[in-house]
């Protein structure tokens, strides 16, 4: 089995206590080939993962194993368990990493199969305040701009963040952090004495909008018109934009053809240029979009135009005019019967007089 130090903060006493209850390593020593009948005593020794700076920080493990009664193979058996036991290999697997072995103690009164870390393991567990719409766990390391995350350490220590707020918190086992206002890769680090542990957070901006049609709008029979109410969805959905707001930017129409060149010019899009809050579920909160057109007179004929609408976002605590992140096309068309079609953000509506 492989010990995992990620489930929850654990005291060193609990870790050691758990380790002493481990079952013996299968097959004796690392799956070695020594006849089990010769394993008459128990011995112990230390394995140290060394190499470059990323090799487990020079972490040392004390192991207990069966060996021959006369202890003549104790050193060989220690080398074998350090290098070939599956659990030990999993603890020292990066490129250029290897184990250095100490001298064994043989015989030794210990429980075969026990692996004890000779250091205090630092652990960080993260939890986002908001749930991601796609169901990603709240322990995710991908977060939206402005998301709130709480980090918990296995022991109290000094926290630092390379971006976001706050940047520093000393002598605490919890660190409440808010992601920065723009995309970034942020390192959260916990330092206790000479030991440190870090976690990398990927901060993501909105990158797209799709719409969900809430309902269609009705108009009197015989009159031109089509319309729909839309709910905007902000992407990606693997994170939450619950601390973000967004707006459409007003602007002119483009690609104006046929009937629309004679009626309703200049077809300027007045969005109101107002920021609206996005909910935890990445849907526009307490607001809906209206994509509609009506009341154009006979005689109808073929025509079309469209709005290429810039969209901006900002974190709610920002102020200012935000950052442009995508464009949404809202297109209108009409034919000689007055049938009108409108499309926007993946949804559409069509109606005849």
Brief overview:
The protein has 353 residues and is mainly β. 8% of the residues lie in helices and 43% in strands.
Describe the structure.
By secondary structure, this protein is mainly beta. The chain folds into three domains: 12-117, no CATH class; 137-204, Macroglobulin (MG2) domain (Immunoglobulin-like); 208-351, Sandwich (Immunoglobulin-like), CATH 2.60.40. 8% of the residues lie in helices and 43% in strands. It has four helices and 20 strands. The strands form four sheets. Strands 13, 14, 15, 17, 18, 19 and 20 form a seven-stranded antiparallel beta sheet that branches. Strands 5, 6, 7, 8, 9 and 10 form a six-stranded mixed beta sheet that branches.
């Amino acid at each position: 089995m492989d010990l995992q130090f990620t489930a929850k903060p654990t005291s060193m006493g609990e870790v050691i206590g758990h380790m002493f209850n481990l079952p013996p390593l299968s097959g004796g020593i690392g799956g070695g080939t020594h006849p089990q009948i010769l394993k008459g005593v128990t011995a112990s020794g230390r394995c140290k993962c060394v190499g470059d700076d990323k090799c487990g920080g020079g972490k040392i493990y004390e192991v207990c194993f069966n060996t021959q009664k006369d202890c003549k193979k104790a050193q060989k058996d220690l080398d074998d368990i350090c290098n070939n036991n599956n659990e030990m290999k999993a603890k020292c697997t990066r490129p250029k990493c290897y184990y250095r072995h100490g001298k064994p103690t043989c015989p030794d009164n210990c429980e075969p199969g026990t692996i004890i870390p000779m250091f205090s393991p630092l652990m960080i567990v993260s939890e986002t305040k908001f749930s991601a719409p796609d169901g990603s766990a709240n322990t995710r390391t991908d977060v939206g701009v402005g998301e709130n995350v709480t980090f918990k350490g296995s022991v109290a220590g000094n926290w630092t963040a390379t971006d976001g707020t706050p940047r520093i918190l000393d002598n605490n086992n919890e660190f409440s952090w808010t992601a920065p206002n723009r995309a970034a890769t942020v390192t959260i680090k916990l330092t206790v004495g000479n030991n440190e542990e870090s976690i990398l957070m990927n901060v993501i901006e909105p990158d797209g909008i799709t719409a969900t049609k809430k309902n269609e709008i009705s108009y009197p029979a015989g009159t031109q018109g089509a319309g729909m109410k839309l709910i905007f969805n902000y992407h990606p959905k693997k994170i939450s934009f619950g601390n973000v707001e967004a707006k459409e930017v007003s602007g002119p129409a483009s690609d104006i053809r046929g009937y629309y060149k004679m009626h309703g010019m200049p077809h300027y899009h007045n969005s109101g240029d107002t920021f609206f809050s996005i909910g935890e579920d990445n849907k526009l909160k307490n607001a809906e979009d209206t994509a509609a057109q009506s009341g154009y007179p006979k005689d109808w004929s073929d025509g079309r135009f469209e709005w290429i609408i810039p969209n901006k976002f900002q974190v709610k605590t920002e102020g200012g005019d935000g950052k442009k992140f995508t464009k949404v096309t809202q297109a209108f068309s009409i034919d000689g019967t007055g049938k009108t079609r409108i499309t926007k953000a993946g949804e559409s509506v069509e109606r005849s007089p």
